[in-house]
From TrEMBL:
Record protein name field: Ras-related protein Rab-39B
Record membrane topology: Lipid-anchor
GO BP terms: autophagy; Rab protein signal transduction
SMART domains: ARF (SM00177), RAB (SM00175), RAN (SM00176), RAS (SM00173), RHO (SM00174)
Family the UniProt entry places it in: Belongs to the small GTPase superfamily. Rab family.
A molecular function GO annotation: GTPase activity
GO cellular component, one term: cytoplasmic vesicle membrane
Biological classification of the source: Eukaryota, Metazoa, Ecdysozoa, Arthropoda, Hexapoda
Organism whose genome encodes this protein: Apolygus lucorum
Length: 218
């Protein structure tokens, strides 16, 4: 097996009311697929995907799903504590899910402290609106909320995949920018940001010869 090479690992979480589309967003982002039936309580705990930020640095995203815990507001503190970013997800056709976003944000801030996470506000199920369903959250009110908190906002569909990539990319880029500016540091005992495996560039020219030699000897 080839060791995946990445420069950093970021751990991100998705939070928001039950049924807003969190697991579907994760599935689409990591699998490129939409699964019509999804049981909220039987979930994969985490997903992973490698992406690149603008300067080509490779980031492995470790993406944690609530696996149904959000139904009972019983999300464990450790779920939050080791995260560097959180996608706050609401359903565009469900006003209540948007009204609960401040609560989710407050809870995440409280448990992620002393770290200061990157948030993004993500409206899901845009395909339903486009198919004629009633929109309950306007783009303007969501944008206004995001602006007040200085966070990124985007409307997506986990069904068609529209803007899914952009939502995760925005958070990843912002975390990376904060590392570059010195605002974030890698800390022992905290899994929000970790350094990964990266091959020193001076070895790249030896790559083709070096690898078969290794596998034939061991
Ligand atoms: P979670 O509880 O937040 O993880 O939500 P799920 O991802 O389990 O989705 C709840 C329900 O909404 C499921 O029936 C999904 O198939 C459906 N769903 C999720 N995202 C979308 C979307 O973007 N468009 C449509 N039409 N349905 C979606
Ligand atoms: Mg789920």
């Amino acid at each position: 097996m080839v060791e995946p090479i990445f420069d950093y690992q970021f751990r991100l979480i998705l939070i928001g009311d039950s049924t807003v589309g969190k697991s579907s967003l994760l599935k689409y982002f990591t699998d490129g697929k939409f699964a019509e039936v999804s049981d909220p309580t039987v979930g994969v705990d985490f997903f992973a995907r490698l992406i690149e930020v603008r300067n080509g640095t490779r980031i492995k995203l470790q993406l944690w799903d609530t696996a149904g815990q959000e139904r009972f507001r019983s999300i464990t503190k450790s779920y939050y504590r080791n995260s560097v970013g959180a996608l706050l997800v609401y359903d565009i056709c469900n006003k209540e899910s948007f009204d609960h976003i401040p609560d989710w944000m407050t809870e995440a801030k409280r448990y992620i402290e002393p770290h200061n996470p990157v948030f993004a506000l993500v409206g899901c199920k845009l395909d339903l609106v486009r198919a004629g369903a009633a929109r309950e959250v306007t783009e303007e009110e969501a944008k206004a909320f995001a602006q007040r908190h200085g966070i990124f906002h985007i409307e997506t569909s986990a069904k068609t995949g529209l803007n899914v990539e952009q939502a995760f990319k925005a958070v990843t880029q912002e975390v990376f920018d904060r590392i570059q500016s010195g605002q974030y540091k890698i800390e022992d005992g905290w899994d929000g940001i970790k350094t990964g495996f990266s091959r020193p560039t001076h070895l790249d020219s030896n790559l083709v010869e070096a690898e078969p030699a290794k596998s034939s000897c061991c």
